[in-house]
Structure formats: C-alpha cells, structure tokens
C-alpha cells in the first residue's frame, strides 16, 4: 500500500512538472517568435512583406504599442489559431490600421494580450501600419461579450480599434464563448513614425 502511494506521488509530481514545462514553453515560444517577427517587420516593405521564418504563412502588418504599460508588439496577418500562437493577429475582413471602420486584433489572454486586463479607459494605444504611419487610439472601455450572441460591427467612417481576447483571464481551459473586448477611438493627430527603430529583445533564458 505504501509503495503504491509512493508511486502515485511520483507520478503526480512528474505530471505537475510536465504541465509547468508546457506552460513555460508556450511563453518562451511567444517571446522568441516576437524576436523573429520584429526583425521581419524592420526588414519588410509595403509592397513585399517579409516573412518571419521561411515556412511562415503570415507576415507582420502593424506594430502595436501601449506606452503606459510598456507594451510593444508586432501584429500578424490573420487571426487563426496557428498565427495567434506567435503573436496578435489582425482579423481578415476588418479595416487595416488607420482605415475607416473597425480594426480588430486578437491575441491570447495568457501571452500577448495578457496586458488587456490592466488597460484602462483614456489610455493611449499606438498602431503603426506597414507604410510607417502611426495612428493614435484612445481607450474608451472594456466589455465582456458572448461571442455566440454578439458580433462586432466593422463598418463606419471613422477609424476604430478593438482588441479581443478570451475571458475570463484566469480560466483553466479553453472553450468558453466569452470574450473580453477593449474598444478605442482614433485621435485626430497622426504620427510620422516611418518604421522607427524597434527594440529586439534577446532570446528567452534557458
């Protein structure tokens, strides 16, 4: 009986270590991917986007910064699960940054868009498009919505921004239809930020 309990304890410890390792790998992959993606952003051109790695099926389309929170991320084309594993993704069919209508960008709640829980009304978001023009958006608020019942209206004459992630932030697993959406309205001033220098962090510690 004691031997069986000992074996069970070892098994539980091993399972726990494996789960911790999986979580650490997810975060390490997200950080390392952003290093490669930022390099592709710095090297890319409007007429020929650079892919972050040779077999990538996506490419950088925008740079998202939140000065108040120290957030600096590159947004990828498309919002498939495969793309979101490496960075926030621009949802197909919504406005490109700075264009009339709603720009929708999605990200995972436990990696790139974890900062949404700290984002507050009236804070500034800067979104730079592939041409190097930075557009300022002012946060108007965050809302929890049911994705099965509520959609986002992507039409309109003024540029708007929605940052979307799964909810709740502390959920143990995926599958909930709830989403946390931060809305922001464009400010009149447009910055001249033609591919300004971007900090490229080193690889994650081993």
Key phrases:
8 strands; 206 residues; alpha+beta; disordered C terminus; Sortase, Chain: A; 8-stranded mixed β-barrel; 2 helices; globular
What does this protein look like?
- The protein is α+β, with helices and mostly antiparallel strands.
- The chain has two helices and eight strands; from the N terminus they run αββαββββββ.
- It has one domain: Sortase, Chain: A, CATH 2.40.260.
- Strands 1-2-3-4-7-8-6-5 form an eight-stranded mixed barrel.
- It is globular, with a radius of gyration of 19 Å.
- The termini are far apart.
CATH architecture: Beta Barrel
- Would you state the CATH class? Mainly Beta
Radius of gyration: 19 Å
**Approximate strand percentage:** 25-35%
**Major sheet characteristics:** 8 strands, mixed, barrel
Helix content: 10-25%
CATH topology: Sortase, Chain: A
Sheet with most strands: strand arrangement:
1-2-3-4-7-8-6-5
By DSSP (H or I, 4+ residues per run), the number of helices equals 2
Structural class of the helix and strand makeup?
alpha+beta
Write the layout of secondary structure elements.
Elements lengths: L1 H42 L16 E7 L4 E7 L3 H4 L4 E2 L10 E6 L17 E6 L3 E14 L12 E8 L11 E15 L14
Parallel strand pairs: 2-3, 4-7
Antiparallel strand pairs: 1-2, 1-5, 3-4, 5-6, 6-8, 7-8
């Amino acid at each position: 009986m004691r031997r069986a309990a000992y074996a069970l304890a070892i098994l539980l410890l091993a399972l726990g270590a494996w789960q911790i390792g999986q979580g650490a790998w997810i975060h390490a992959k997200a950080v390392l991917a952003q290093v490669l993606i930022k390099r592709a952003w710095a090297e890319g051109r409007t007429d020929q986007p650079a892919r972050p790695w040779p077999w990538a099926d996506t490419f950088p389309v925008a740079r998202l910064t939140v000065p108040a929170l120290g957030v600096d991320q590159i947004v990828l084309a498309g919002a498939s699960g495969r793309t979101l594993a490496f960075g926030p993704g621009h949802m197909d069919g919504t406005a490109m940054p700075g264009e009339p209508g709603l720009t929708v960008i999605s990200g995972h709640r436990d990696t790139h868009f974890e900062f949404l829980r700290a984002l507050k009304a009236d804070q500034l978001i800067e979104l730079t498009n592939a041409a190097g023009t930075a557009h300022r958006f002012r946060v108007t608020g965050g809302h929890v919505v049911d994705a099965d019942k509520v959609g986002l209206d992507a039409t309109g004459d003024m540029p708007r921004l929605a940052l979307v992630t799964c909810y709740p932030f502390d959920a143990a697993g995926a599958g909930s239809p709830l989403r946390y959406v931060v809305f922001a309205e464009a400010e009149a001033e447009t910055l001249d930020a033609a591919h300004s220098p971007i900090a490229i962090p080193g690889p994650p510690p081993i």
